[in-house]
Design goal:
single chain; alpha/beta; Conserved hypothetical protein from pyrococcus furiosus pfu- 392566-001, ParB domain; 17 helices; elongated; disordered C terminus
Length: 324
């Protein structure tokens, strides 16, 4: 039976006893040590049998030690008042230590989405630094396109962690969420895929959405998250815009105001709706927007696109331009 890299390390390297007072946590460690049921069982086990599997440490320049694997075991020993712990000490670079730290923790059963997101980000950055150093040390001058490298690296990280490359990329997107929304994902008040969709909003729009949800607690479907993202493309999200997507609550006054601004193809009079050309054009335009998208938001998007076309920022082929 083939041993894992960690098992090989524990088999080959010498074990020593290290004073816990000389051990520091890994800087920026993404995995929290929570006093949950699993932690209580670990404390009970160590209290009865001691630390069976040694922790893995890296020696620091100041003579102290940095935890690579075994943060929960260290915390359990501190809880129990145990002063020394069995350890394996390895020499490794900062990038190698990040990779080992992530790999040794990523298989834990209770990991929050935010923890996995940060861990994947740290490993991605460490592998990038290792790759850049390898390129600098080699005779090759060409490099892979950034997008291709990220995709292949995400596949590598996913294979080692039991996730697909696409899922790794989704977790990486969560790092773009503001803390408030990320906490909602951790607490399962916001679905994981909704969080991924909302991560594409600007910080300002995310903050506006979070304020709205604090005042009006409301679940968000993946479809609604997509609609919020589309709406934000037409301009800053406001409470009213969010309300229209999440609640469908457009006041009669808003409807009247929006109706006055609408081109004839969007007006809901029986005359325009009953005429073939208007109805056909209306349906054609609507086919490019998500279901449930508000007329006012569609108009905002169309105005911006037409303005860019008018200013020459968008080029069309000659035949289409002539028709317009």
């Amino acid at each position: 039976m083939k041993l894992t890299p960690f098992e090989e390390m524990l088999e080959q390297d010498e074990r020593v006893e290290i004073a816990i007072s000389r051990i520091d946590a890994f800087p920026g460690h993404p995995f929290q040590v929570r006093l949950d049921e699993d932690m209580e069982k670990l404390i009970e086990s160590i209290g009865q049998s001691g630390v069976i599997v040694p922790i893995i440490l890296r020696k620091k320049p100041d003579g102290r030690y940095e935890t690579i694997a075994g943060h929960r075991r260290c915390a359990a020993c501190r809880q129990l008042g145990i002063e020394r712990i069995p350890a394996v000490i390895r020499e490794m670079s900062e990038e190698e230590s990040v990779v080992w730290m992530v790999d040794s923790n990523i298989q834990r059963t209770s990991i929050l989405p935010s923890e996995k997101a940060k861990a994947y980000q740290m490993k991605m950055e460490a592998l990038a630094k290792q790759g850049n150093r390898a390129c600098a040390d080699s005779s090759f001058t060409s490099r892979q396109p950034v997008g291709k490298w990220k995709k292949e690296t995400a596949e590598q990280i996913g294979t080692e962690a039991g996730d697909s490359g696409r899922q790794v990329q989704r977790y990486l997107r969560l790092n773009a969420l503001i803390p408030g929304l990320l906490e909602l994902v951790d607490k399962k008040k916001l679905a994981f895929l909704c969080g991924v969709e909302l991560s594409y909003l600007s910080t300002e729009d995310q903050e506006e959405l979070y304020r709205y949800l604090q005042e009006k607690p409301h679940g968000i479907s993946r479809k609604q998250a997509g609609q919020l993202r589309q709406s934000a493309m037409a301009g800053r999200l406001s409470s009213d815009r969010i309300d229209r997507v999440l609640m469908g609550a457009v006041s009669e006054n808003q409807k009247k105001t929006e109706g006055d601004k609408m081109p004839s193809v969007f007006k809901k009079s029986t005359v325009s709706r009953g005429r073939n050309m208007s109805e056909s054009l209306d349906n054609y335009i609507r086919s490019y927007f998500p279901e449930g998208y508000q007329d006012s938001d569609m108009i905002d998007v169309l105005k911006q696109l037409l303005e860019k076309w008018k200013n020459g920022e968008i080029k069309l082929d000659n035949r289409t331009t002539d028709k317009i």
